[in-house]
Amino acid sequence: MVDSLKKPDVAQRVKQETLLTPRFYTTDFDAVAKLDISAMEADFRAMLAEFETDYNREHFQRDEAFEAEARQIDPQWRELMVEFLERSCTSEFSGFLLYKEISRRIKDRNPLLAEGFKMMARDEARHAGFLNKSMADFDLALDLSFLTKNKKYTYFKPKFIFYATYLSEKIGYWRYIAIFRHLEKHPENRIHPLFKFFKNWCQDENRHGDFFAILLKSQPDLLKGVVNRLWIRFFLLSFCLTMYLNDRKPDNLYSALGLDAGEYALDVLHKTNLDSGKVFPLILDLDNPAFRRGLDACADINLQLEQTKGNKLAKLPLMARLGFEALKLYLLKPLTAPQAEMVR
Ligand SMILES: [Fe+2]
Ligand SMILES: [Fe+2]
Fold first, then answer.
1. What is the C-alpha separation between 39 and 215, in angstroms, rounded?
2. Of the ligands numbered here, which is closest to the C-alpha atom of 171?
3. Could you give the 3-state DSSP secondary structure of residue 54?
4. Total domains in the fold of the chain
5. How far is the CA of 166 from the centre of ligand 1 (A)?
6. Which of 42, 117, 205, 280 qualifies as a cystine partner to 172, CB 3.0-4.6 A?
7. 157 φ, ψ to 5°?
C-alpha cells in the first residue's frame, strides 16, 4: 500500500488545484507597514508577551512510542491520513510563508506588528515541519522549497488577508479542539498518534486568531460600512462552504475518526461563526433552515462535480447551479453582532 504512494504522486496531487485546495497568498506589504496600530498597542504588547512565552516550544517532539504507533496505522486509513497530512502541511506552510514575508517586509517601519507576524511564522513552521515528518513515515515528503517557488500566489488586499486569516485561524482552533475532545472520549478511534498533539496545537491557532482579532479591532474602518459588511458576509460564507463541501465528501477522515462528518462540520462552523461575532459586525444565520438546505444542496452538487472528472460539458451546468445555490445562501439575511450575543 505504501509502495503505491510514490513521491511523484504527491507532487501531482498538490499541483491539481481545485476550488477547495489550500492556497498561497501575497499582499500589499507597503500598506500593511503603514497601518497605525497605536489604538490597540497595549493589547498587541500583551499578545506578544504570550507569543514570547512560547508555550509549545517542547510540544512537537516525537518519541519512540509515537513512531511505533505511527508505523502500526491500519492500512485502510493510510490514504486518508496521507491526504490529511498533505493538505494540512500545505496550509500550515502557506501561513508560514505569508507571515514570514509580512514580518520581513514591514519590520523597519512597523516593528511591533512585524514581531507578532514573526512569532506566528515560528509557530506555523513548527506545525508544517511536524506534519512533514509524519509524511516521512509513509515514505513521502512535501518538497517545501519546490512549493515556495512553483505555487501560484494569490494576491489579496490586506483587509481581505486579515478577514481570511482571522477566520482560518479560528476555524483551525475549533476543528482541532473538537477532534481532540472527541478522541479523548473515544481513544479507540485515534488512528494516528498525531491527534494527541491537537490540544496544545490548537492553542497556537487560537492565539493567532486573537492576534488578528486585535489587528482588525485596531482598524475599525475595515469593519464599518455597507461595502465591508458585504465583503465580511462573503468571507464568512466562503469559509463555511469550503469546510462543509470538503467534509461532506464520502470516506473522509472524520468518519475514520468515528465522527459524523456533517454534524462535526456544522458544530465547528457554529462555534467559529459565533466567535467571529466578537470582531465582525455580523455573522451568518446558520440556524435558518434555508441555510442548512442550501449548504446540503451545494455539497450534493459539489459531489456531482467531482464525478465529472474534468469533463467540461458536464461541469459547466453544475458550476452554474453551484453558483446559484451559493448566491441564494449569500442573500439570506445575516444576524447582526448584538443578535449574535443573544444566540450565544
Ligand atoms: Fe498552524
Ligand atoms: Fe495559525
1. 10
2. 2
3. coil
4. 2
5. 12
6. 205
7. -60, 150
